Amino acid sequence: MNIPLNHFSPEIIMIVAAFLVALVGVAKSDAVRRSAQWISLISLILAFIAGWHIGMVDSTAAWPLASFATYDTLLASGIGILLVLLSWDMPFAMDPAKADRTFRGEYFAMMLVSLAGVSMMAKVDNLIWLFIALELVSIPTYIMVATGRSNPTAQEAGIKYFFLGSLSAAIYLFGFSYLYGFSGSTDFSKIASAFAAVPQLPYIAMIGLLMVVIGIAYKIAAVPLHYYAPDVYQGTATPVTAFLSFAPKAAGFIALILVFNLTGWKLSHGAARAVPDLLMVMAVLSMTIGNVLALLQRNIKRMLAYSSISHSGYMLVGLAVGPLMINHSITNGISAMLFYLGAYSVMTVGAFAVLVYLQGKLDAAEDLDDIAGIASAHPLAAACMAVCMLSLIGMPFTVGFLGKLFIVQAAFSSGHGVLAVIVMINAAIAAAYYLSIITSMYLRDPWTPFTVRRPGAIQFSAGIAAALVILLGVFPSVLMSICRYSGSEVTKMVVVNNSQAPAAGKSTAAILPPIHLVRSRSTPRPISHTTPLASTHTAVAAAL
Amino acid sequence: MTQSHLILPMMLAIPLIGAALIFMIKPGTSGHRARGLGVLAFCFALIPAVMGVVLLTRFNYAAGSVWQQRFNYPWLPQFHVNFSFGVDAISLWLLMLTLLVTPMAILDAINKIQHRQNEFFAWMLVSYACMIGVFISHDVLLFYLFFEFSLIPTFFILGIWGHSDRRKAAVKFFLYAFAGSVLLLASLIYLALVHQEKFGTFSFALADLYRAGQSLSPTQQGIVFLGLLIGFAIKVPLFPVHTWMPLAITESPTPGSVMIALVKLGAYGLLRFAIPMLPLAAVRFTPFLAVLCVISILYGGLISWVQRDMKKLIAYSVLSHLGLCILALLALTMTGLTGCVMVMISSGLLAAAMLMVMGMIYRRYRTRNLLEISGLARRLPVLGFFAVFFFMGTAALPGLIGFISEIISLVGTYVSGSAGHGGYLGPAYAIPAALGMILGALYMLYWVAHVIFGPLVETVPDADTSPTHASLVVQDLSVREWLVLSPLALAVLFLGLYPAPVLNSLQPAIGKIRHEVLAAVQENTASHLAASSAATSRTHRVGAVHLAGMPVLAAASKAQSFNKAVALRLPASAR
Known about the structure:
Shape of chain B: globular
Number of domains of chain B: 3
Order of helices and strands of chain A: HHHHHHHHHHHHHHHHHHHHHH
Strand order of the largest sheet of chain B: 1-2
Mean pLDDT of chain B: 83
Number of helices of chain B: 24
Structural class of chain A: mainly alpha
Strand content of chain B: under 5%
Number of strands of chain B: 2
Helix content of chain A: over 70%
Number of domains of chain A: 1
Strand content of chain A: under 5%
Largest sheet of chain A: none
Number of strands of chain A: 0
Distance between the termini of chain A: 21 Å
Low-confidence stretches of chain A: 498-544
Distance between the termini of chain B: 43 Å
Structural class of chain B: mainly alpha
Oligomer: heterodimer
């Protein structure tokens, strides 16, 4: 790898902390074992600071995807902090009787390893590394799913998740082998130059790409490989569900971007159109199937599983329209997708945090009945949940609204108006089931008395998530700049194909050289307002 | 932007600050604190109203079409989205309506809300702020944000403090409105992108979107218009998509239903955005929409006639009036557009007042069924007076605002399409609409005759179920109720007797909107004519004339007034 080693410091911190946590976790004394969460928390905070520092201080000249990688690291460690907080009492949650024989060490160690995998995903430059990073994310999650709860459903979920996960890994590894067969190398730069050398994608590469897309669809829980999601999400412990809704998804989307970067995004004409077409079909099906099936659920975890499928659909729209926009657009598909990924992660993790906080029949609230009328007993938790739900609906002044706005804008400006309208219609369908959660909390009488015995850390994490949802919804500048720079970095990966005349019509085929983006990066844009955030914004802009 | 006026953003911020403050105070079990919360909320609602009076004195009425008291602050500079506020004459008067009625609704609600008072008043203030925000937004995305966000407070008010079927009503209300508004948002984003493509910047500024929308071809305009129309027609509501409204108004507590009936967001959206942004499509859709409006008028009137639930009666009468409002808007004559704004004002004012009167009756007798009570004038003369007053206003008694607004709208619709007035409607639409208004008078008179003047029949509320009404003697209006109803009654009377200031100040703003539409239509017609005559001039010149559907050859080159009158009829026939 030709990336300076210090750029890996966040991952190094996480991996070292993971080993430390595993060691601490087997200690005899309960007090020492309890330090596991603290170590995880501190290491993630350190990783976040390190990631921020690298993004701010080191020049982008180091390598072309620097801000993309920075965003990935910040996302992994930032959401990781929330995830550690919400699984604060993880072992006690499942079985108070066996409090002395906890999995605490293992659980947090696995979590850190997986987050390290997410964080390094954007920094890989080799197919082998890409595979390793994906497996680094996945393998710990298999263990977490199976051990998160000591009941048969969790075992079943674990087995299901493991077997299907292995299958999907096999599929995308098979796809990687075709890419290798096409280019003769696993190195990203060599593959990219092999792609650049051919005017049209050969079928061997096409098959490889399609297999990668299908295999990774499992990680992001997109149709057609979405079947496992509701069962696994429901079966395992809620903190693990929260983790599953974030880590594999983020890793999968970043991996997809990297793979398409290899092709120089020459996907808009000839046989290669099959790839974006496949992505669009997957997007539409994921959105629609996810939302419609979610309408039928009464179990909130299952509902959120379908919701996560549908949100994958929204993000796939961003990916399908790609980094090329017809006119010089505010956000391209990739930056819109990255923004949506961040928004989705915050609001979904916030929703799960509230579920973990509320006591249900099992370890956490699961049913719509479980949360009936909690607004009177737990106004704060209910408010956090309501904020996250409204954001998932896409109401104004939340980050979810801006996410949808950017996705729709990107879809329109690449000429995919129909896709944009489908996104909007789906947003309307989705409102119905998110609203049923709010209705249950605020408009119904309590069903069961709640005996909350959860540590404040969980509510703290829900509170942070809800606050972030609103803050990023009202002051999105920092997140938006990082996403836009990441998106424009991806745009620079685009190989302008002069030998091929742009296909006629409305498609993305109108490939413009990304000059405007280059220009917008090199010249400082005028900052016309003077909020405190504006200075951060400027700093980020300068640093990236 | 030469100068930033702070009055509008402050008007928006004060209720929000009040809401946050009130939300944090626990109501406690004693009534005193709850009442204190209500009074506090009333004060926070009154401050913007006072600022509204200041605004009235500062407003330059001669330049009513110009957005005044502008305030600009960049929000998303990358997207060119600004906190951009301002008022022109149309939004000024609608803002005044909101500022007058909402504090009264809050005043009316003190003591009436039995539980979670802090949340109730906080949501009321948030709803108030959204309504203010909608009318003062100059940036279209900002308008959308407030438009959309106003669903949340109404949802909670309806769902928590509503009547027996409140959950269904709240969910239905939210989903209907949300489903419409997502397509609205998609259309707006598309227009902003069109502006970027054709004029260089991604922008949601009002004038930019006008320009972008008008630059589209008729077919494109039609598609975008459909998106806007779905959003606004649900919100108005118009006939096939109106079902949420009677349910929401009936199930909502009085202040909530006042908020729903008060603010004509849908009509305002059509007037301000949909029609001038996409004039060709609007003209093309006019007959279809006008039929829906007429159906709304007659359907609303007929249902009100047979309605036994007093709140539903008002809900359907609102539906009927809004049908007239949109019909007058579609007439596209100066009179009609003025009538449209006047109906928004009068219907908002009268519906709010009637709903409050209903709330007062309901509080005394615990029934909304008008068969169970009658002859209230004997028991409650003052309440009876106000009820008769407002009902006569709605039934268009001359001298009250209802008469002014309805007559202007009907005249505007009637003359539409005749020479010299422009527009596309005519007597064929105005006559059934007038019939609907007669129906309105009919059911209002029926109601008044029965409930107020019939023989005295009272269903005395059961002492067990409502301890506050243990006494058998029902009291007439309290001082607070006097205070609630009299400003509204004065406004109804004043605007009915002397509407000239409002009417005059509306003219420039309305003229501007009308001009946007007519200029675009005319330009399109002229280009059609030019294109068709150029294509056929060599062979048979008369063909162009037939194609244009006009017996006069030189229409395009004749005097402009003539051109305007004739060209306006064109797109329907030239298609």
